[in-house]
Write a structure and sequence with these properties.
Strands 1, 2, 3, 4, 5, 6, 7, 8, 11 and 12 form a ten-stranded mixed sheet that branches. A two-stranded antiparallel ribbon has the order 9-10. It is built from four helices and twelve strands. The chain is globular. The protein is α/β, with parallel strands linked by helices and 160 residues long. The protein starts with a helix and ends in a 6-residue tail after the last strand.
């Protein structure tokens, strides 16, 4: 990927929305972009696992975990499935685990932090609904651009 979010913002200004949440970066891809899919769940990663087991087509999964750091919503096995299925990245408003393994996977991963504790597996939550955190709404079908400086959202695909 050759884009920089700062350059995209300079070129497109207020047509872009900037997520103010300060995420930690995991995964081998520091820069990633793609159309947004979403999951809303709290301390339960069954829908995350189910979604990332489907063909990603270069999309980015945005997971609103309510900002909880009590349990991890993504680990190495689910992330490896995401790579195998062609997902570009995952943004989690919550925690991950297996961070050393995540760092070796060809996947962009942003999360608030890490916790080795497993999450529930009941399947509670919602898929492909707008989710809001970091002063922005992540709408399925819109575009996400992420690099070392942060995350930008666009209603349309940008030439990078």
């Amino acid at each position: 990927m050759s884009f920089a979010t700062a350059d995209l913002y300079d070129a497109h200004g207020d047509a872009l929305r900037s997520c103010v949440t300060q995420f930690r970066s995991y995964g081998a891809r520091a820069r990633f972009s793609g159309q947004i899919s979403t999951v809303r769940c709290l301390e339960d990663n069954a829908l995350v696992k189910q979604t990332l087991a489907t063909p990603g087509g270069g999309r980015v999964l945005v997971v609103d975990g309510g900002g909880s750091l009590r349990t991890a919503l993504l680990g190495d096995m689910i992330a490896a499935a995401a790579v195998k299925n062609g997902w570009a990245g995952v943004v989690i408003n919550g925690a991950v685990r297996d961070t050393a393994a995540l760092d070796r996977l060809d996947l962009g991963v942003k999360a608030l932090g890490s916790n080795p504790r497993k999450s529930a597996k009941t399947g509670l939550g919602e898929v492909d609904v707008p989710v809001t955190f970091g002063d922005v709404t992540f709408t399925p079908g819109e575009w996400l651009y992420s690099d070392e400086d942060g995350i930008l959202l666009s209603e349309h695909h940008l030439d990078t």
